[in-house]
Design brief:
The complex is a heterodimer of chains A (242) and B (334).
Chain A (H helix, E strand, L loop, with lengths): L5 E5 L3 E5 L6 H17 L6 E4 L3 E5 L2 H4 L2 H11 L14 E9 L7 H7 L4 H10 L2 E6 L6 E4 L14 E4 L3 E5 L2 E4 L4 E3 L2 E6 L19 E6 L2 H9 L6 E4 L2
Parallel strand pairs in A: 5-13
Antiparallel strand pairs in A: 1-2, 2-4, 3-4, 5-12, 5-14, 6-7, 6-13, 7-10, 8-11, 9-10, 9-12
Helix pairs in contact in A: 4-5
Chain B lengths: L2 E7 L3 E4 L19 H11 L7 E5 L3 E5 L3 E14 L2 E2 L4 E5 L5 E16 L29 E3 L9 E2 L9 E6 L9 H9 L2 E7 L3 E5 L15 E2 L4 E4 L5 E4 L6 E2 L3 E5 L4 H6 L5 E6 L2 H16 L6 E2 L4 H14 L1 H6 L2
Parallel strand pairs in B: 11-19
Antiparallel strand pairs in B: 1-4, 1-9, 2-3, 3-8, 4-8, 5-6, 5-7, 5-8, 10-20, 11-18, 12-13, 12-19, 13-16, 14-17, 15-16, 15-18
The chains are: A alpha+beta (242), B alpha+beta (334).
Chain lengths: 242, 334
């Protein structure tokens, strides 16, 4: 099958380049790398770009610029290399975010570890020892979907929703961790709690995370989390990746 | 400070502009005014840039007073309006002297009404725009006691624009989009042949379309979440279409059967609850041509502005504008 990468128009609002029909890690890397490569070309018709789990999107006024010229320009970039094997763009950031795992602030940690077939110690080691990639940002402003955990973390969403899972929560399902931007009802399991705020409308940097960035969680005690919260900080450290 | 004081206000009044482009990758949609044609009409009436901030009003307006003499324009969904007790015509500009009482009451036709002031509203921008993004809590609804800062510019009161037929539903053109071919030809034909009613479930994120038909595609559950553009028609789990608007989420897991042309989107947003809407596919190339003509017509609205007097000569202008100007014809053809 040479169906992918697939280049399609989205309404009259832009062009989408899709690298697979399943949310695989390789398709996600390809989407992020491809977006970076096209952004570096600074094509004048492209007003902004984004990436989803498996696609790169380029916002273009098709009524002004037409579809065919953009399609052809993007097809040329597609043909340059095997994007499923591409390196991620340079200059990404590694974020180290303190979080509590288990206990009253993360009540479903034990249940999630069990669903993954792991002891609590092994689950903690994997959730804090794995550098997770920001696969995409969405659902709420600044909210990252992080992946990809091992196959044993392919735990389904629970059938009933937990009505309130707070801002800063780490929730797990389908080999991903989501870090909630706001209090949200969810079927994902609440495995950790950070003081991280995904969207800071009044700050100089309203959004910290970008697709392709990496996130590593650092295990802290509930006392330490509450000390951070009392000071209105999140304890996050950033390192620029080469 | 030049300001518009808010003495009373309805529950759905907010400052809007063209929204915040540039944050799609961060999970924030552009937002902005629901009826962009109404924004252009107000700008044409006041002879100012359409990127000036306006007040968007749903259901009812409020009671307002300007601290300095200004000129206002009223566009979009027609509402009852008066200035110091004298009726103020919709789709027109009016002098609003300092201290006069501007009362904007219930909607008479359509859904989203707009109040423009000369120079625009000069509230503090957040992330580069003044638009209120209600679903993410950026900005706040206008409240009683607010004083909304106004810009300063000259404008001519007593000018008007012809009113089109976008306020009662009708036919809306759509282009095939990324997932259209995932729906069977039979489903797409049935979609085009169905007369929908605008459901009461509607807000700035999207409008549900009601009918006795369902349009689900059997593979729906396996769709990977994908990017949304304004006008996308998603088929929700129960088979009902939702037309997504500028304040939707950035991505969604329901497949899109097509996308409403931007120039026809005002007809969807202005349709009142229960109004009948039909969707008709045009090819991508046809859609591009129709939209390019509409863009040109919206940019030339200033030429159709004329004095607010009942004069056969003006009626003649209005008629010729409709024939050559493109706005009305762009809405009704196809």
């Amino acid at each position: 099958m040479t169906e992918f990468p697939k280049i399609r128009s989205v309404g009259l609002g832009g062009v989408l380049v899709t690298f697979g029909d399943k949310a695989t890690d390789a398709a996600n890397r390809a989407a992020i790398a491809f977006r970076g490569a096209v952004d570096a070309l600074a094509l004048p018709q492209i007003e902004e770009s984004s990436s989803t789990l498996v696609s790169a999107f380029f916002r273009v006024d098709l009524a002004q610029h037409g579809f065919a010229p953009l399609r052809d320009a993007l097809a040329e970039v597609v043909a340059q290399q095997d994007w499923l094997a591409a390196e991620l763009p340079p200059g990404r950031t590694l974020w180290t975010i303190p979080a509590v795992f288990g206990g009253p602030r993360a009540p479903q940690f034990g249940e999630a570890a069990e669903a993954a077939g792991l002891t609590a110690e092994a689950a903690l080691a994997e959730l804090t020892g794995t550098r997770l990639r920001v696969l995409t940002i969405g659902f709420a402003p600044g909210q990252p979907y992080l992946g990809t955990l091992g196959t044993h973390w392919d735990i389904p969403r629970q059938v009933g929703l937990t009505p309130h899972v707070p801002q800063g929560a780490l929730v797990a399902a389908v080999r991903q961790v989501c870090l909630f931007a706001k209090d949200t009802p969810t079927g994902w399991r609440h495995v950790g709690q950070s003081a991280f705020r995904c969207f800071r409308p009044d700050a100089a940097e309203p959004f910290l995370l970008t697709p392709g960035d990496e996130v590593q969680f650092a295990d802290v005690s509930q006392t330490e989390l509450e000390r951070l919260e009392a000071h209105g900080v999140d304890g996050t450290e950033r390192t620029v990746l080469g | 400070m030049r300001a518009l004081r808010v003495h009373q206000v309805g529950p759905g009044v907010a400052v809007q502009d063209f929204g915040r482009p540039g944050y799609l990758a961060k999970g924030l949609t552009r937002g902005g005014a629901a009826d962009l044609l109404a924004v252009h009409e107000g700008a044409a009436l006041l002879r100012q840039s359409p990127d000036r901030a306006v007040l968007e009003m749903v259901g009812t307006g409020g009671t307002f007073e300007a601290t300095e003499d200004t000129v206002i324009a009223l566009t979009g969904a027609a509402m009852t309006a008066s200035i110091d007790g004298a009726a103020a015509v919709w789709n027109a500009s009016h002098a609003l002297p300092a201290g006069a009482s501007l009362v904007i009451g219930p909607t008479r036709e359509g859904t989203y009404g707009y109040l423009h002031v000369s120079g625009g509203f000069a509230t503090e921008p957040v992330l580069g725009a003044r638009a209120t993004h209600q679903s993410t809590g950026l900005g706040a609804l206008v409240a009683r006691g607010d004083a909304l800062p106004m810009g300063n510019a000259t404008a001519t009161p007593g000018m008007t624009l012809p009113r089109d037929a976008r306020f009662n539903g009708g036919q809306v053109r759509i282009v095939p989009s990324m997932q259209t071919e995932d729906f069977s030809i039979e489903t797409r034909e049935r979609f085009e042949n169905t007369v929908f009613q605008r459901d009461p479930r509607a807000n700035r994120q999207g409008v549900r379309m009601d009918s006795n038909e369902g349009f689900s595609n059997p593979d729906q559950l396996s769709v990977v979440s994908e990017v949304i553009v304004p006008g996308d028609i998603q088929i929700a789990g129960d088979g009902a279409p939702f037309v997504l608007l500028a304040e939707s989420q950035t991505t969604g897991g329901y497949p899109r059967i097509g996308t409403v042309l931007p120039c026809d989107l005002p007809r969807v947003v202005q349709a009142p609850t229960g109004a009948e809407l039909r969707f008709a596919f045009v090819t991508l190339d046809e859609g591009i041509a129709v939209q390019a003509r509409a863009d040109a017509a919206w940019a030339a609205l200033g030429k159709a502005v004329h004095p607010l007097v009942r004069d056969p000569a003006d009626m003649q202008d209005l008629l010729s504008y409709q024939l050559v100007g493109g706005v009305v014809s762009a809405m009704d053809e196809g």
